[in-house]
């Protein structure tokens, strides 16, 4: 009898497979990083064939650790880095170019042209998103414009577009599908109809013939071939929506913040489409089978965990990401140093693609420890800005922050986060809730779990951090942070 559900998590820096048992506990995990390709400043690419090879490897590795095969899996779920854009040949399966990663800013000029006199809110009523380099639609347009013959081939139906879950579903089952959560990040799907919007397609310049079919997040899409031979592929959710699901935020008003390459705060708004007035995104939370869709408000921060990677890989200040906590603890404060990592511009709540990163407040007093401390504080202050925007949109202040993701292993960061928010921060026993959410959705689709209430019973807290910073220090730090952010604006010129 099948006793496990597997989740494939294809993330920005790595691919992994986690196998879960019926209690939602991790039974096995395997993970492998892939290359980050930087052809020019502001450009970020991935090799989709490398990603696929890594996915095959980590799936085989996770199953081998349990000495099981695909027949022992009741279902497989997929969660993925969102907005990363891939176009491939339908006949050969060969990508026409590297995938353009969500962090990539090459579409900056195109985005400004699309906004015209209206600006970044031109399409917001239909798709819930501001015009920004972050989203997939302009990336598709760029690939079709810059690749010889691509537009004509796309119009003939010879090219296929997909975000990464579509690529994996296609490789596993041969079907060209996406789910509502990922489709809602393209700027091409209408929030009300949950279908591709003809007006958006025409305005942005994307042929409908290359787009995948939009399906619910929890549904059997087909049985896999190859390394997962015969296993039902039964869910797909963008990584942040998967974490919302894994944190069992099934009621309106419940939310979470995931700490990964970037930070992403999502709050369930139920069946209601809430349009933000404070720089947040309106997005799909999830859809289970034929049930009504659940919407969410999201605050997206581009660079948090990847700032730690930058300190490790580009500055050589630490040998491993985990070393940042020890180095930051070597000092009592940031010494007046602030780092604003606008490497890909600023996301929520600013949406400034003209911004670039700064380090401010430098004096001869500053040492490696102060920089490490400022790195952690950058994550906490950026999250504070998004929490404030969420409260302004909803009219309800945050009482507790549920957190998940790799950076939550950093106890100093979690304490700083509680301090700057002035609310408790709570981490669950299973902090890898992105994978867990994909597994939960897949298990629901095949009846492995009877319903969402059964999933709620699995959630347990493992650690809580309570605020200890005096109010005056918190507000002074926030004021300095805001001043540092203002120094990032208007850096990119037209000739850059």
Task: Note down, in words, how this protein is organized.
- The longest helix has 27 residues, at about 370-395.
- Helix content is about 35%, strand content about 20%.
- The protein is α+β, with helices and mostly antiparallel strands.
- It is globular and about 60 Å long.
- The protein has helices at about 50-65, 110-115, 125, 135-145, 150-155, 165-175, 180-185, 200-205, 240-245, 305-315, 325-330, 370-395, 410-420, 435-445, 450-455, 470-485, and strands at about 5-10, 15-20, 25-35, 45, 75-80, 85-90, 100, 160, 175-180, 190, 195, 215, 220-225, 230-240, 255-260, 265-270, 280-285, 295-300, 340, 360, 400-405, 425-430, 460-465.
- Helix 9 crosses helix 14, helix 10 packs antiparallel against helix 12 (about 370-395) and helix 12 packs across helix 13.
- It contains 16 helices and 23 strands.
- Strand 10 (about 190) and strand 11 (about 195) form a beta hairpin.
- The strands form seven sheets. It has a seven-stranded mixed β-sheet with strand order 17-18-16-15-21-22-23. Strands 3-2-1-5-14-13 form a six-stranded mixed β-sheet, sandwiched between helices. Strands 4-7 form a two-stranded antiparallel ribbon.
Can I get a quick summary?
By secondary structure, the protein is α+β, with helices and mostly antiparallel strands.
What topology emerges from the helices and strands here?
Layout: E1 4-10, E2 14-20, E3 26-33, E4 45-46, H1 48-66, E5 73-80, E6 86-89, E7 99-100, H2 108-115, H3 124-127, H4 136-146, H5 150-155, E8 159-162, H6 164-173, E9 177-179, H7 180-183, E10 189-190, E11 195-196, H8 198-204, E12 213-215, E13 218-223, E14 232-238, H9 239-246, E15 255-259, E16 263-270, E17 281-286, E18 294-301, H10 305-313, H11 323-328, E19 338-340, E20 358-360, H12 368-394, E21 401-404, H13 411-421, E22 425-428, H14 433-445, H15 452-456, E23 461-465, H16 471-486
Parallel strand pairs: 1-5, 5-14, 9-12, 15-21, 21-22
Antiparallel strand pairs: 1-2, 2-3, 4-7, 6-8, 10-11, 13-14, 15-16, 16-18, 17-18, 19-20, 22-23
Helix pairs in contact: 9-14, 10-12, 12-13
